[in-house]
Design brief:
single chain; alpha/beta; Quinone Oxidoreductase, Chain A, domain 1; Rossmann fold; 7-stranded mixed sheet; 6-stranded parallel sheet; 10 helices; 17 strands; 25% helix; ADH-like_N; ER; zinc ion binding
């Protein structure tokens, strides 16, 4: 079952690691298998993961169409696909798990924009097992960042396994962190927002009161100052219950363990180039647990989107046209950037 679909499409290729993307207007439109969907792309998010892939750190096979935060409209439904129809508004990330596992930890998973062609083109092949329908009142611009940044932060906060009312620190307030602050508040936690950059700090401080952090800290003031502010803001507390580190800055991990309560939980989301180092005291005298963040499963993504709509959680986005991806990449490295950058694919 299919709409009229062109043979060629516009899009961007990563052809060589460490080199700019290459724009093309004659890319063959991909052909989905009988158990796959073809998505007409509307918006693709641009994420730090794109820079990891472009540098070669992910060891992706080239050439590759980048883009792993993908939303659009179902343009073709394979005959073995159930639960989707033409015209459905959807979001997707993983293409398939070739061993049949629905898990983040499948060694054979194919990931859009990482191990197979992603969403920085007009059409994308998607696995229905990793495709979710979007709420009617959630725009494509707001939905795209949820496919990775939002999904990761929502799942990471859940992985901290804290009771409502606990204090959760969101360390790093960039594309992921500014969404994570809103999730933490909407999920019933007290929230400490941590960053050294004034623009992201100003952004989270401007949220509606119900989604605004209870305390904002600059780690350059040191952990002792941070702990005193935590005690002042939350009387009787000597640290935070959990810290979600959504930055690649190695120093952020040590700072986070310095402000955690004993028996606290550190959730690792950031991906530093160098190994993360911890002092033995983190384990022996603090009893800190370290857990992984990571993408939500599809059922959890649906739970996340329900919360987004109910609590009016929004990503702060800047929209670029497909032809302007080179400018987006340049702007992404501006130290004053805040929120998320997304690409409008549809004309």
């Amino acid at each position: 079952m299919a709409n009229q679909i062109p043979n060629k499409m516009r899009g961007w290729y990563l052809e060589e690691f460490g080199q700019p993307y290459v724009y093309k207007i004659d890319i063959p439109v991909p052909k989905p298998r009988e158990d796959e969907l073809l998505i007409k792309m509307e918006i693709a998010g641009y994420c730090h993961t794109e820079t990891i892939v472009a540098s070669g750190d992910y060891q992706s096979k080239l050439p590759l169409i980048p883009g792993h935060e993908n939303v659009g409209i179902v343009a073709s439904v394979g005959p073995k696909v159930q639960g989707f129809k033409l015209g459905d508004r959807v979001g997707c990330n993983c293409r398939e798990c070739t061993r049949g596992y629905s898990t983040n930890f499948c060694a054979k998973a194919e990931l859009a924009g990482l191990t197979h062609d992603g969403g920085m083109a007009e059409y994308l092949v998607a696995d229905p097992r990793w495709t979710v329908k979007l709420p009617d009142n959630l725009s494509f611009e707001d939905a795209a960042p949820l496919m990775c940044a939002g999904s990761t932060m929502f799942n990471s906060i859940r992985n901290a396994r804290q009771d409502k009312g606990a204090i959760i620190a969101i360390v790093g307030l960039g594309g992921l962190g500014h969404i994570g602050v809103q999730f933490a508040k909407a999920m019933g936690y007290k929230c400490v927002a941590i960053d050294i950059r004034p623009d992201p700090i100003a952004l989270v401080s401007s949220f509606d009161p119900c989604l605004r952090p209870d305390l904002v800290l600059d780690p350059r003031d040191g952990p002792e100052h941070a702990l005193s502010k935590i005690l002042e803001t939350f009387p009787g507390r000597t640290g935070v219950d959990a810290a979600v580190v959504s930055t690649d800055a190695s120093e952020a991990f040590k700072f986070s363990t310095d402000i955690l309560e004993k028996h606290g939980v550190l959730v690792v989301v950031g991906q530093p180039k160098e190994p993360i180092k911890f002092h033995w005291r983190v384990f022996v005298t603090q009893d800190i647990s370290i857990v992984a963040g990571g993408l939500s499963q599809p059922d959890v993504m649906e739970e996340m989107m329900d919360l987004v709509v109910k609590e009016k959680i929004r990503s702060t986005v800047k929209v670029y046209m497909l032809e302007d991806v080179t400018q987006l990449v340049h702007d992404f490295h501006n130290p004053h950037m805040k929120g998320k950058y997304v690409i409008r694919i549809a004309t």
